[in-house]
Amino acid sequence: MTIPIPSLDPAHVRAIAIRTNDLGPFEEDVLWLFDTPSGELDVPGSRMNGEAVGALHAAFPGLDSEKIVRAMTSVEPRTFRVWHPRAAEVPRTKKVLEARFEALVTRLGGRDPGGQVGVALLSAWSSPERRYHDTEHLGECLVALGDVHGEDEERDVAELALFYHDAVYDPRGPGSEAKSQELLWRDAKALAISDHVAERAAELVGATAHTGLAGGAKDP
Predict the structure, then answer these.
(1) What is the mean pLDDT of residues 1-12?
(2) What is the CA radius of gyration of the chain?
(3) Cβ distance 206 to 181 under 8 Å?
């Protein structure tokens, strides 16, 4: 199966997105976007049938099927990024992220009986109204952390901060970072994580103040 866009070289694609609008059903309301070094290649959704999408799956491991479905059923102007070069590495599911959080807590000398703190934390990240500050964004931050060199303890403190940096998110007003810091402090006490570690992680959360930790804003 070959790529459905003859001018597209998979080796040079930096990201794939789907842009939707509210012009349907009689206008083209879906546009596939392929980001390349020479510019953005736009392909109308009417050209991307099941076989074409199957070819993209074969060429781009990690292409997000769930997000493609969401894009195809969207009736509002949105941009859905469905692939980037490290997409296959990104942990997205709550179960995987909960397990990673539990392992982190253990390394920090704490414990989460029954996993209740982790479940509540990842439920916040999974809130359906979130468009960017979601589990995918968290997973991408964690992948980026893997590229950072440093002492194990410092990396664990940074990872704790990542888990909490957008745990509380209200796009309608300021204060999300401060509320996320407060949540980190409460959870750290419940998890028996030391005040010293919690303070360092909370400082990192406060420093985000919405400059972001892993790239620019996007919709899911």
Answers:
(1) 77
(2) 20
(3) yes
